[in-house]
From TrEMBL:
PROSITE patterns for this protein: ABC_TRANSPORTER_2
Domain ABC transporter, chain residue ranges per copy: 1-229
InterPro entries linked: AAA+_ATPase, ABC_transporter-like_ATP-bd, ABC_Transporter_VariousFunc, P-loop_NTPase
Name of the molecule in the record: ABC transporter ATP-binding protein
Keyword check for rRNA-binding: no
Molecular function GO terms recorded: ATP binding; ATP hydrolysis activity
Species per Swiss-Prot/TrEMBL record: Compostibacillus humi
Keyword list, A-Z: ATP-binding, Nucleotide-binding, Transport
CDD domains: ABC_DR_subfamily_A (cd03230)
Pfam family for this entry, one: ABC_tran
Amino acid sequence: MNVLAVEGLTKRYPNFVLENITFSIPKGRIMGLIGKNGAGKSTTLKAMLNLVRPDEGSIQMFGKDFKENEENCKQNIGVVLGGIDFYNHKKIAQITDSTKRFYKNWDEAAYQKYLQTFSLDPQKKVKELSTGMKVKYMIALALSHHAKFLILDEPTSGLDPVSRDDLLGLFRQLVRDGERSILFSTHITSDLEKCADDITYIKGGKLLRSAEKNAFIESFQHLKEPGETGELTLEEIMIRTERSHYDI
């Protein structure tokens, strides 16, 4: 079963159109969402979650129509979106006390485990946290109600290389039993080479390609220069695609 199926997702703004985005994620998979700044990645995530109202298209989560089952679906997802902040003078413990009331399956033992894993002090105020620690805290919240699907916008942004690698390892552990799936957007394409199963590429508001990672990379090898050997990385694929105005 697909944990997510996006079909024909469209959102129109005066100066930008997200047009006919279609992709799906099976259970137990990690999908990376890539594209330049302003390509439509965050708009896609927000439209999927009905945080901005799509003009067209359908979203299914866990085999159910998302709009008709929004409350139930949101009990089973964990979301970390960029640009969302907390009250700077509140302690982590206070924010958690408010947040956990929204989730029927909140697991306090799991939450405490993730606090330890991420070295988070619940008595610290938000203003005392680095950008990386804020990201870790939001991920701890997202993981503490047994979410079956994680939607993450730039989750490794602001983390040092060691913390990033630890987090990617955690992602792989989370999907290992086949019961969870992860969708995350990132500019750090090397992270996706380490942990993603599938890649979806949005360019200028349109879906360029969505495929299993190895098949995705193989489909762009024609961008290599004559005589160039070795496989192109995701970063090289993005740079050459954007600069060459390549389209499918």
